[in-house]
Amino acid sequence: MKPLFEVLRIPNYRNLLLAAFSSQMGSVIGLTAFMFYLLDRFSGQPFYATLSELMQSLPALSVFFFVGVLADRMDRQKIAANCDWINAVLSLALLAMVQWDWVPLIFAVLFIRSAVSRFFFPAEQALVQGVLTDKDYSVAAGLNQMMGSLFLLFGTALGAAAYWKLGITGALLLDAVSFAVSGLLIRSCRIGEAVRLPNGRHTWRQLNFRVIVSDFADGLRYILGHKLLAMLVAGFAVFGIINGGMSVMPVFILKYKLAPQTYEEHAVWLGILFGTGLLLGSVAASVLAAKCRPYHLIIGGLVSSGLLLGLSGWVTSIPYFYGLSFIVAFTLPAVNIGLGGWLPRIVDPGRMGRVQGWIGPLMMLTQSVTLGLIALFFPSRIGIEGLFLIVGGCFVVTGLYYLAVLPRQYREDAAVPAAPVPAAEEASSA
Known about the structure:
By secondary structure, the protein is an all-alpha fold. The chain is built from 16 helices and no strands. Helix 9 runs antiparallel to helix 13 and helix 10 crosses helix 11.
């Protein structure tokens, strides 16, 4: 495997990574600045700020049926670039709505922009799979994890700084420019048709309802028909659990146990500490990925983070909780890098979009179920210690299951589970 960052010498991958960075930066800066704007503009109506967050999650449930199918049937490079350019235009439209103070249209634009963004990631990830070799996937997953950690660590600060220095107008203009730059970077890549259109050329007329349903179901059959792939996709479901639990559990333990009077301040510092741990853990896991098999990272990350997370609920002082939270954050990237680096090696390039189209909804489902169960049972039936113990236990149990099955499955499965579907066959099915 190439050393960390050496993969950046590949021009197409470098441009795709920079495009993903620019696109994510635009999204983070614009949405964070817009949140501050709503809190200032409607200070007595926090409902609007909550509604803006809802406009970011609801679209995933409205378009997940289509995103993977389009990424496999249409030109992936055009999809990714057009998503960015459409979002740039929508950012300008949002700016106009803000100037005219048309609140219903503001939230309508937010919903549409979020829906458009859902098509970007499956297409971009499928392109990354095509421009790299299987030896580079773990490195690429590590770089993606580091980029996500940076935005987690500095994203809110960037959005706040843009809003304070440039105002909502300047922040949304910066938002639009970031999306436009991302689109230009994607279009600058010289990617062969075999990567952009692995299943041959299709027209929009061919994408009728029957074809979309058939392709969506084919993605599920493909996942379930390959044992190793099904196991790895299930691992992303576990990430939904941690996302749901960690979105509320740290604040709960601070407010109800460790620091009831100053929990807001501690929550800010904990976020910075957690982001730092993720960033350093991403670097460490990327280095280890060059020396370990992917299941070593996955199993080690799940078991260690699960044990530490379960223990975190029982601490009685802020310093110990900070220390355990940092170590949990440091160990989590190993799971993500192991899964993210292994997945492209075993998925048929012609079906990567459909596989990615299932991962997002699965993570959102487990995240939503986790939050629903917490809302239902905490604190009436489950205390804060039990909450940490249950979520951490899910990680440990999954890690132990993987310990029993993944090493054997790794030896049995070939690098690619199935031959690509011929373009002619795909076209005829349409």
